[in-house]
Amino acid sequence: MSSMVEGIILVVVIIIAILVFLSFVPLNLWISALASGVHVSIFTLVGMRIRRVSPAKIVGPLIKAEKAGLAMEISKMEAHYLAGGNLDRVITALITARGANIKLDFPEACAIDLAGRDVLQAVQMSVNPKVIETPVVAAIAKDGIELRAKARVTVRANIERLVGGAGEETIVARVGEGIVTTVGSAETHKAVLENPDLISRTVLNKGLDAGTAFEILSIDIADVDVGRNVGAQLQMDQAEADRRIAQAKAEERRAMAVAHEQEMKAAAQEQRAKVIEAEAEVPRAMAAALREGKLGVLDYYQMQNTIADTSMRESIASLGEGSAKSTPKK
């Protein structure tokens, strides 16, 4: 009975040992690699486990590379994987580049991948150029007419400048700048509408792909529309501003005239008050002259007759002027 129990315990221990071995040693990957003609030792796979490298992430791309005729080193593949790169995408890009006769080696592909760019997409863009459509760019010609243009830029990826080269946003910005410069230097908007290729030629001659990760193949103007008459609008705005300035100055002059009139009225009222005050002093002066004997009674009456005669003459003159004004002309 005891020997049977010992036998069962031994079988269980062997089964557990086998399961632990199979979980630690990727035997299925070793068999797959061996069947694919890729020589990877069991100890290499165990070492990957110890270095916390997923053997499947290395063996799969390694089999793909060997089948495509690429000689790869497992240590360099592990280094790229540990650096955070996408090893499968790098191998696929190398296979695609080799099929398209594009010069690309493993270190360069790893550098492009670690730089944050899609190396596979870059290789595909080198084979099949990409069309970038710019947003609508508004520019104003010298005659004040606004033109709204849209361009399509055909670019091809430049593998050698993918690391450190500017992206699509720079291409779009430079093309927009070229459109604004070309339209702005045109004498009239009609010249641009008659020759839209003028924009393409001017932009291409500027070498806008310098320092970028792309090579510009062509720039085609997709659409050109006439926008606002900015020159006329500016003239209208200037005329309105001049009108407001003139109106403000006129209001200022009117206010000054009103103030001057009020000052003159105040001065006239002051003079009238002085005259009334002086007239009020006349009877007192005459009374004082009569008391002091400086003025006789006959002199006083003669002065009164003169005043009455003057008043009568003024009344007759005013009546004559009124009748002359009321008589209609023949």
List the helices and strands and how they pair.
Layout: H1 2-24, H2 27-35, H3 42-50, H4 55-67, H5 74-82, H6 87-99, H7 106-114, H8 119-127, E1 130-133, E2 137-140, E3 145-157, H9 168-185, H10 189-194, H11 197-205, E4 214-229, H12 230-292, H13 297-326
Overview of the molecule:
- With 330 residues, the chain is α+β, with helices and mostly antiparallel strands.
- Helices cover 67% and strands 11% of the residues.
- The chain contains 13 helices and four strands.
- Strands 1, 2, 3 and 4 form a four-stranded antiparallel β-sheet that branches.
- Helix 4 packs parallel to helix 6 and helix 6 packs across helix 7.
- The radius of gyration is 53 Å and the shape is elongated.
- 20% of the residues are buried.
- The model has no long low-confidence stretch (mean pLDDT 78).
pLDDT average, as an integer? 78
Helix content: 55-70%
The count of β-strands is: 4
- Rg estimate, integer Å: 53 Å
Total helix count? 13
In angstroms, what separates the terminal alpha carbons?
163 Å
User: Biggest β-sheet, characterized?
Assistant: 4 strands, antiparallel
- Low-pLDDT runs: none
Taken from the alpha-carbon principal axes, the silhouette is elongated
Helix/strand class: alpha+beta
SSE order, one letter for each helix or strand:
HHHHHHHHEEEHHHEHH
Beta-strand content estimate: 5-15%
Characteristic terms for this protein:
330 residues, alpha+beta, 4-stranded antiparallel β-sheet, elongated
In short:
The protein contains 13 helices and four strands.
